[in-house]
Amino acid sequence: VTPGSIYNWERGVYEPKARQLRALAQAFGVPMEAIDLDAPKAGMKAGGEAA
Fold first, then answer.
1. Could you tell me the pLDDT band of residue 6, with boundaries at 50, 70 and 90?
2. Nearest to residue 24, comparing CAs of 43, 48, 5, 44?
3. Distance of alpha carbon 25 from its chain centroid, rounded?
4. Total Cβ atoms within 10 A of residue 41
5. What is the Rg, in whole angstroms, of the alpha carbon atoms belonging to the chain?
6. For residues 27 and 21, what is the distance between their CA atoms, to the nearest angstrom?
7. In 3D, which of 46, 35, 43, 51 has the Cα closest to residue 11?
8. How many angstroms separate the CA atoms of 17 and 37, rounded?
9. Of 4, 15, 21, residue with least CA distance to 38
10. What is the DSSP string of the chain?
11. CA 29 to CA 14: how far, in whole Å?
């Protein structure tokens, strides 16, 4: 998973593929289901813009 991919996910350019989610979950030691793609990020407005 590259920094550019994460940047694009955060801005809603595209969503991560299942294999990328598995890699992130493994890296953080959490189940894949723990990665919530729909949860707003702290300091972010809807649509991925800075608050």
1. confident
2. 5
3. 11
4. 10
5. 11
6. 10
7. 46
8. 11
9. 15
10. --HHHHHHHHTTS-PPPHHHHHHHHHHHTS-GGG--TTSPPTTB-TTS-B-
11. 24
Which residue has tokens 């590259």? 2
Identity of the amino acid at 41: K
**Which region holds residue 41: left if phi is over 0, alpha if psi is between -120 and 50, else beta?**
beta
Six-digit token string for 51: 């608050």
Q: What is the pLDDT of residues 10-51, one digit of tens each?
A: 888 988 899 988 998 999 899 988 887 776 666 555 555 555
Contact (Cβ atoms closer than 8 angstroms) between residue 51 and residue 13: no
User: Model pTM greater than 0.70?
Assistant: no
